[in-house]
Give the backbone structure.
Amino acid sequence: MKNKDLLKENNVVMWEEEKIASFQKTLLDWYDSSKRDLPWRQTSNPYYIWVSEIMLQQTQVDTVIPYYNRFITTLPTVQDLADADEDTLLKLWEGLGYYSRVRNMKSAAIQIVAEHNGVFPKDYKDIIKLKGIGPYTAGAVSSIAFNQPQPAVDGNVMRVLSRLFELKIDIGKASSRKVFEEMIRHLIDQERPGDFNQALMDLGATICTPKNYKPETSPIKEFNASYLNETWKQYPVKKTKKSSREEHYIVVAAKNSKGEYIFEKRGAKGVLSGMLTFIMINRDSLDEGNWKSFEGKVDELGQQHHKQLQALLKKEYGVTVKLNDEIKGKLTHVFSHLKWQLTVIEADIIDESMLMPQVQLIHPEQFEKTAFPVPTQKTWELLKTLTLF
DNA sequence: TATCCGTGGGC
DNA sequence: TGCCCAAGGAT
């Protein structure tokens, strides 16, 4: 609505038409000669572009490539995605993180089948209505797959523009994105909007990087105010995030006589929602004197904390176990805003006749078919190691 | 609006 | 080592 004011309010002096045209040519010439050869650049299929964009959210290109190839091979069409079981999808996504992305993709695929006859919608206003697609992804798909002049503002674009225009707004704030989008509406090449957007992102990923930035090596250095004014070290402006919290858990790897392990399917909310972990007991739910005994070998408190853990396992999971005398080991898993400190202990299941619904027994022979988040994988790797004395 | 949501890599 | 970063979205 007041987009003109948006630039004025943030002291953005947009370039003249002639300079914009020159910038477009310089940037696209560089892109044509130096763009990265990526799998999703060998197609104009909007479904494939969409898959790549979702995977690339907060995830590096090198990580995504094998996942992308496997995903589109296994599920070549929107209909295939809409029909896929969640277990299949999670196995395809295993290790990528942010698992709600793939659940949202299935919802969106069902939307596309129901509302667009299975054909990926062409217009930004329809694309952004799809689950899991926000302003960036809607702009990326509509510009790359359908050649529509929509901005696709990600972290790269904000960094590049901050430096080009000496922009002092905090790129970490959600409200900042709209300013950059309005700038792109002026700057974007109307003939090649998809290439223009991708060129800015490629530049941000390979030359205009957060660290080890050498502005004199940039193909668009002559357009870069912060380079010409030697202020480039000040950009982009980004406030530091606050540090993450830490949680301590006792991980109980309980095995029955058939060799099956108990896993918990985590609830709908919170970290790793809907994913499988070994049984985890928050250390804070045990009396202090008891959890301290887990820091090393079992001591005099052993019998007491064993009893407390066993009572919790019976009450919360419906399983009766005999705990091993010593802990198997410790491991750490770091999330974005959270750190888990895990103390792993093995156990034998004595009675599994009253299991609660959120738990399931899985034999190791089935592990390769099952999707586990990385903390569960790390725990299993620890369990497989021999304990040496 | 600020926080939550995974994981791996770089320094 | 601990932090920052990576083609963000939902709430």
Chain A is about 45% helix and 15% strand. The mean pLDDT of chain A is 93. The first strand of chain A starts at residue 245 and ends at 255. Strands of chain A lie at 245-255, 261-265, 276-282, 320-323, 329-334, 338-351, 359-362.
